[in-house]
């Protein structure tokens, strides 16, 4: 490959800079096929994120809101299937298996997820009426969550880079599907320019007030909760169903495994805001935040790093 390459956190040379994004070698073909071939339908919903930003949570919430007229919370498929099985990821699941998967059989609204930067999404997603719901998380918790995952799996038994070595890379934007600032800024700007197209959510806001964010999601999708639903407690039921403790304790998420081989439990660690402080030194955090703030300066996008 002639693309610029860097070592990933596992210390193997396997991140390639493809259209401005650091893509693991295992995903390159899938990313390319998805970006070239996927044809969106106007009724599609795309859950977009940087990994470890709360994608699992947003998948569960979006699925529950969008399909609530089909399944009530007591019969929700989330009780027996991982949010990742119900809302498959283009890059990691669908186009990894097959460079041109047949996705037409899924009933509308089809709900998929993507880790691609906004500008790299297929034209049909950007130009059709389909909706994009994006979740971003403060960069310190995002990075710690990712680092903990890599540590847990020690993929292929290769020695991991030290936290210092990883941090040096992160500060240059060299991490899986980074740079962080490019992906968040792309969706942030798109949400300001086209608020009917992109809804920009923050993990920390969802933790603080899930009810008003559920209402926001439903309104954005064009299916606001009715007064009757509100009176019946439908929003609270969805928030309970999708809560960290509830999802994590379901049998499927405790012991199930995704077709990709990832244990469902790996998507549920602590689910907190500010856990970074248990892992990063104050100077590491300060340096990284300074870099991110410089990159985002003038955009109006800010983060909360504690609850
Ligand atoms: P932590 O590692 O900080 O605990 P993603 O889904 O994008 O991979 O993000 C995973 C992060 O979201 C993990 O963060 C995980 O614990 C947290 N998470 C998963 N489900 C959640 C939920 N229902 N509510 C809040 N956080 C959740």
- Shape estimate: globular
- Name the poorly predicted regions: none
Please state the CA-atom Rg, rounded to the nearest Å: 19 Å
| Oligomeric assembly | single chain
Strand order of the largest sheet: 5-4-6-7
Q: Kindly name the structural category.
A: alpha/beta
The set of bound ligands, ions and cofactors reads: adenosine-3'-5'-diphosphate
Biggest sheet character: 4 strands, parallel
Pfam family, one: Sulfotransfer_1
EC number: 2.8.2.-
Protein name: Sulfotransferase
InterPro entries: P-loop_NTPase, Sulfotransferase_dom
Task: Summarize the SSE layout with pairings.
Layout: E1 5-7, E2 13-18, E3 21-24, H1 28-37, E4 45-49, H2 55-66, H3 83-86, H4 90-97, E5 111-114, H5 123-127, E6 131-136, H6 139-153, H7 163-170, H8 180-193, E7 198-202, H9 203-208, H10 210-220, H11 227-232, H12 234-241, H13 244-249, H14 251-255, H15 282-296
Parallel strand pairs: 4-5, 4-6, 6-7
Antiparallel strand pairs: 1-2, 2-3
